[in-house]
Write a structure and sequence with these properties.
By secondary structure, the protein is α/β, with parallel strands linked by helices. Helices cover about 15% and strands about 20% of the residues. The chain has 2 domains: about 325 residues, Collagenase (Catalytic Domain) (3-Layer(aba) Sandwich), CATH 3.40.390; about 80 residues, Sandwich (Immunoglobulin-like), CATH 2.60.40. The protein is built from 7 helices and 15 strands. Strands 1, 2, 3, 4, 5, 6 and 7 form a 7-stranded mixed β-sheet that branches. It has a 4-stranded antiparallel β-sheet with strand order 8-9-13-12, with no helix packed on it. The protein is globular. The two termini are about 25 Å apart. About 40% of the residues are buried. Bound molecules: zinc ion. Zinc ion binds next to helix 6.
């Protein structure tokens, strides 16, 4: 799925450890689909249209708090809880606190700034209080993977397959040891199918993807002294602030160019254009491409050290909130108002999986039984973690139980999704693991 030519170029062109090693862009390169992600022509024209429409209408952003329930999957290698990769619950909670300070420009915290463009995004985060089956949860899942470090280019689906909650309801964050010099990457939001009605040659994008953010454990949360390994410049939890910015549709502040002549943009008019990324915490602050304006090195979407970041701008906020109102797996992940969490009284939205299907696995691994509740199974599909439709299985209706069996002896080990559409075209999603 990755264009290796491009990846090779990135690896060669960035000095090792001289800057914040974020791999979101390399991950997002996805052949023809690139146009449907941030920076791509269809995505950007859809965002532009939504902005224009909102600015002209009374339905513009009302500044409500958008809450995002988070599940943190800790992929460790057998360490005791609280040591090494198996980071403590306090560390996880410190990351949530940092996210809220940064996205909330919280007074008195490191996330505060007095920059004229710096804003409170009105986006907040909490650990999920309920798992996908409705059981109480602290939002932390610990998995002993038996894996030392993950190669994020060849093992993206593999690492996410160890544990994965419905991305329509949760922001999945995987914390693990990342091979090489990368410390994080995110899955960009994607254009919604309903935006795409008028777009020619819309590829067959199914609405299931391995969605979320992967963070190296040595930069996750408030990292105690001596535990950040080679990443001491990133020990204050700002890697997650940066990567979740990508998850919510932000591009790197310099637009991923290499000089001012590249004329690259992040589609935010209040972040000065920069030739390229900024490393460290330079003083004097380098000039932008439009002097005398300086580069905005305090922006979370630059590559500066954790210690000198503290700005999301008004335009970045607008972009993230448009994504949270409109993108698949973003508009359903947020709750609006004072409560963060999955609430039992939450109204089901189209595409929601709140009710509708339950999966039962055959202990011998020969089939999965799809049990509908209150809906009729009109259409049933199985996908892998990349959203690719699986065709190598058979289904069998069990009329007595009103359920459908998916016979899976041919499926390779991994995580799969079952999507059921009911008579009104509403999708329900559930996942199962084949060992
Ligand atoms: Zn990045």
């Amino acid at each position: 799925m990755i264009r290796y030519g491009f990846l090779f170029f990135i690896l060669l062109s960035l000095p090792v450890l001289a800057q914040r090693p974020c791999a979101t862009d390399a991950q997002a390169i996805n052949g023809k689909l690139r146009d449907y992600f941030p920076g791509g022509k269809y995505f950007e024209s859809a965002v532009r249209n939504l902005r224009d429409t909102e600015e002209k209408s009374v339905t513009s952003d009302d500044e409500s708090i958008y809450n995002i329930p988070v599940v943190v999957h800790i992929l460790h290698n057998g360490e005791a809880e609280g040591s090494g990769r198996n980071i403590s619950a306090e560390r996880v909670q410190s990351q949530i606190t940092i996210l809220n300070q940064d996205y909330g420009k919280e007074p008195g915290s490191p996330g505060f700034n007095s920059h004229p463009s710096g804003v409170d995004t009105r986006i907040r985060f909490c650990l999920a209080n309920q798992d996908p089956d409705g059981n109480p949860s602290n939002g932390i899942v610990r998995v002993n993977t038996g894996v030392d470090a993950f190669n994020i280019f060849t093992q993206n689906a593999f690492l996410k397959g160890f544990s994965f909650w419905n991305p329509e309801k949760y922001l999945n964050i995987w914390v693990c040891k990342i091979e090489g010099n990368f410390i994080g990457y995110a899955q960009y939001p994607m254009i919604s199918p309903e935006w795409a009605d008028s777009i020619p040659m819309m590829p067959n994008i199914e609405d299931v993807q391995p969605d979320g953010v992967v963070i190296e454990y040595r930069v996750f949360g408030n990292v105690p002294a001596g535990e950040s390994g080679p990443y001491t410049a990133y020990n204050k939890g700002r890697t997650a602030s940066h990567e979740i910015g990508h998850y919510l549709g932000l591009l790197h502040i310099w637009g991923d160019g290499f000089s001012c002549l590249d004329n690259k943009t992040d589609y935010c008019s209040d972040t000065p254009p920069q030739a390229t990324f900024t490393s460290g915490c330079p003083f004097p602050i380098p000039e932008s491409c439009l002097p005398p304006a300086k580069s905005m090195i305090e922006n979370y979407m630059d590559y500066t050290n954790d210690g000198c970041m503290n700005i999301f701008t008004a335009e970045q906020k607008k972009r993230m909130r448009i994504v949270l109102r409109n993108c698949i797996r973003r508009k359903t992940v947020k709750t609006v108002g004072s409560i963060c969490g999955i609430s039992a009284t939450e109204p089901a939205e189209p595409g929601s999986t709140k009710k509708g299907i339950r999966l039962l696995s055959d202990p011998e691994g020969n089939f999965v039984e799809v049990i509908p509740s209150g809906i009729e199974i009109r259409e049933l599909s199985v996908f892998d973690l990349y959203g690719r439709k699986i065709t190598a299985y058979e289904t069998e209706r069990n009329f007595a139980a009103y359920s459908t069996r998916i016979k899976i002896p041919g499926l390779r080990p991994g995580t799969y999704f079952v999507r059921v559409k009911d008579g009104s075209g509403i999708s329900r999603l559930a996942s199962f693991r084949r060992f």
